[in-house]
Amino acid sequence: MPERNFSYHRFIYTLLGVGFLVFSGFVYTQAVPENNHVISPKAVAGKMLWQQHNCSSCHQLYGLGGYLGPDLTNTLSTKGKGKNYAAAIMKNGTQVMPNFHLNDTEIEALLAFLEQADKSGNNRVHSYEIGLDGTITSEGETRK
Ligand code: HEC
């Protein structure tokens, strides 16, 4: 009886060992997926300016930030707004928003940063429905 038990264990361990090797081989030979989250140097410069001037004290991105100004996540793709509109406001400020005296290169960088934000998310965070299991469903999507 003990003899049999021993070979049974050996069988299980061999199976686990082989399974581990096959799985590891599989994982390490998979092509690495393209990283779509890498942002351009220009957008990185824009992010630095965003932080330096503390834009988020008044503005939100993805619904997070200060509430004096509007959420800027989707400003560039919003009908009637877009790049020229955003650039004009950044260049001159408004009665409420200060003029940061940004030069054209800085404005370009901030636009690249905002474009990145626009591509990667949306600001309609309040229209998400939180399910009982903690997952969220955005409008237009159906719960699986
Ligand atoms: C003191 C608060 C404040 C700060 C700081 C601020 N903004 Fe604003 N911003 C506003 C307000 C308020 C508006 C809306 C226009 C208005 O009411 O004058 C606005 C509007 C904008 C708009 C147009 C958005 C839209 O959808 O109409 C852009 C783009 C913008 N700001 C970019 C920036 C950037 C970039 C920075 C940082 C360099 C910044 N803002 C810092 C207050 C601020």
Please give a handful of descriptors for the protein shown:
mainly alpha; binds heme C; Cytochrome Bc1 Complex, Chain D, domain 2; metal-binding; 2 domains; two-stranded antiparallel ribbon; Cyt_c-like_dom_sf; 144 residues; transmembrane helix
Placed side by side, the strands forming the largest sheet appear as 1-2
Query: What is the C-level CATH assignment of the largest domain?
Result: Mainly Alpha
The rounded distance between the terminal residues' Cα atoms is 50 Å
Looking at CATH, the homologous superfamily of the largest domain is Cytochrome c-like domain
Helical content class: 40-55%
CATH architecture of the largest domain: Orthogonal Bundle
What number of domains? 2
Order of helices and strands: HHEEHHEE
Hetero ligands: heme C
What general form does the structure show? elongated
Strand content: 5-15%
Structural class: mainly alpha
Summed up:
This protein has 144 residues and is mainly alpha-helical.
Question: Any chance you could write out the topology, listing elements then pairs?
Answer:
Elements lengths: L1 H28 L11 H12 L7 E2 L2 E2 L17 H10 L11 H17 L8 E2 L5 E2 L7
Antiparallel strand pairs: 1-2, 3-4
Helix pairs in contact: 2-4, 3-4
The protein binds heme C (HEC).
Keywords: Heme, Iron, Membrane, Metal-binding, Transmembrane, Transmembrane helix
Organism: Adhaeribacter terrigena
Protein name: C-type cytochrome
Q: What does this entry look like structurally?
A:
- This protein has 144 residues and is mainly alpha-helical.
- Helix 2 crosses helix 4 (104-120) and helix 3 (83-92) packs across helix 4.
- The protein has helices spanning 2-29, 41-52, 83-92, 104-120, and strands spanning 60-61, 64-65, 129-130, 136-137.
- The protein is 47% helix and 6% strand.
- The model has no long low-confidence stretch (mean pLDDT 88).
- It starts with a helix and ends in a 7-residue tail after the last strand.
- It folds into two domains: 1-30; 41-129, Cytochrome Bc1 Complex, Chain D, domain 2 (Orthogonal Bundle).
- A two-stranded antiparallel sheet has the order 1-2.
- The chain contains four helices and four strands, in the order ααββααββ.
